[in-house]
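Per reviewer request, we include the raw input and output of the structure prediction for the construct analysed in the revised manuscript.
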Amino acid sequence: MVTGAHVAFAQEKSRTTNIAVVDVDFVLQNSDPAKSLRAQIEKTRANFQQEVKDKQDELDKLGQSLARERPRLSEDAYQQRVRGLRLKIANHESDMEERASKLDGAFRGASRKVTAAIEQAVDQIMKERKFLVVLPRASIIGTPAVPDITQEVLKRLNQRMPSVVVDMPK
């Protein structure tokens, strides 16, 4: 005999099987495109920091040279050279800030590509397995009694996008 409790249990069970979870943080940490992106970021930042250091060393040498030449320069000539050095420093700082901003934008763009590919994988799995909703694991407290599609998303993402290319600004 089917009671109201049995029907409610069957309806609840039917609803929960239409929900799945995915650990997006895990996918972002362990996927091939995310690893590729992190490697590119690290390499680019190291190169950028070296360029900044090299330019700073050059500017420091100009400042030291100016300090050594000061006794031989008139006050006007010295002040003109100081203004020139300050202008070079300001231009360098401005250039570096602009480049850093462009690099950050390029990395955000590449990150969006990875996120979009994750969303496509989730959407595809949702359609195939007829899930009504897929929730991020981070938004759930406790251990959910619903399917976890994280590994499947990771596999599909790695197949679809083995790496990601960062479009570096010129």
